[in-house]
Task: structure prediction
Amino acid sequence: MPAIVSLKNIVKRYTRGKQSVEVLHALNLEIPQGEFLALMGPSGSGKTTLLNLIGGLDRPTEGEVSVAGQRIDRLSGGELARWRARHVGFVFQFYNLMPMLTAERNIELPLLLTSLSGAQRKKNVHAALEIVGLADRARHKPSELSGGQQQRVAIARALVADPTLLVCDEPTGDLDRATADEILGLLRTLNREQHKTVIVVTHDQKAADFASRQLHVDKGSLTEAVTPS
Amino acid sequence: MKFLPLLWSGLWRKRTRTVFTLLSIIVAFVLFGMLQGVNAVFNNALNASAVDRLNVVSRISFTESLPFGYLSQIESVPGVAGVAYQSWFGTYYQDPKNFVFSFPLDPARFFALYPELHLSKDALAALVRTRTGAVVGRELAKKYGWKVGDRVPLHSVIWTQANGSSDWQFDIVGIYDAPLDPNQAGSFFFNYSYFDEARSFSKGTVGWYIVKVKDPKQAMQVAAAIDKRFANSSDETKTQTEKEFAQSFIKQQGDISFIVTAILGAVFFTLLFLTGNTMMQSVRERVPELAVLKTLGFTDFAVVVLILAEALVLTLFAALIGLGIAAATFPALKSIIGEARLPADVVTLGMAMAVLLALCTGLPPAWRTTRLNIIDALAGR
Result:
């Protein structure tokens, strides 16, 4: 499969006060289209920084980030925002849903940036709700849903605009084992049946085992690659 | 429209705070509507004053009378096209609450100087030949259900008759109209001769003279010439344009424009801080949510517009309610200011103030979101 994500010689430095800290060191990575990749590593290893670069939330200090052939490290702030809207679906550890909006209104958010009609948006939202198995919870607010259900809503929001990538930062970090397995199973289904490229950051080996490839990030470098058994 | 639920959810995130802010803005705009409305009514009345008419009053006070003998002397001043005279009668109908603007005058002279007031020739003739005759404005006639042929008693709070009575009887002989400004059709005019013969004191005097000048550009020179003619006499005069006269009359009640501006200035200054604080708090509480919106692809500009739209919806909605309440209450002021409708330019100015308020209170927090770092905000830093 051709690489949908390509990172070349990526260096990322942060300035904390007067100190400059290099988080990623000359990192190279290629992610084929349709892959389910798990990025593992201890806290502070740079895995979330790497995910933010792939998702266009941050820019590298040096190096190139290309997604679907486009150099996103060269885009301006506004262009990057529009690119994210078209190409990336995000899933966070703490769901990050809008507390005052119902599930369907939360899922609709990325579609507000498209030219779709109200009816088309509604249709897509309900299709996404069907996929995550929450069609009967459309009118519920996040506070009326369990943690697992909220994460399903977040996944529906991530995939409703049919993005190129699904980028998930510790998506099961706030869930019990059984619910976490349900969520990871859902992500695997999306990867296998809808051919979504899924990139998951986790420090949980059991969560990483759902992926088709695992990479370890340690001290800012990709140090180890393990194929799950 | 598609952003409305998102906008609404931002506003109603803290219901109590939003409701109280809304109420504060509503109260401010009720005040604005009422005070600015009264101010506008006075200003409109001033602007309606003719530029070719002068008012001659006593230099001491416009409540002091002038000798009737001044009439021919004023007529002889170069540049004068016509002269009329009248007095303040100060009356009410049946109840002191029913105040009536009534004036004794010379009918032929007066209506010749006021072409904007339409009275039929027959009615004018009837007024001249009927000693106790009176003509009333259509608005006033409508208010009390008066019609031609009615005998109307008015009680004067100033003038008593020679027999000691303050009650004066009049026979309505005509109704006049003011097509350009119906509010001017609210007065009661009757014969000066009846008034002067029947009153118990100050006979042979008039309240003030009205002078029409041949050339409005020469109005100031004519005014100066009139005052010069009566200088060093026992009844010195002060001649002003009709607009200046109306202004000085209104200023007897205080400088309304200044008072209104001062009160509204204080109200809106306070409101600026109150609404600004609400918007600031509202945005600060939603930093993670705004970061999520940016993550999903909302540009800095879109987020700024969203926050400004929230401020606009809040202030415009409150302003509409506030001005609506002011408009509904305004008819109650009719007996005091003679106008029952909140002027449209006050509503327009009010809505413009609401937009300005929204921009002043919404822009600072909205601008802050452009400096929001998504990663730091999502990490709660």
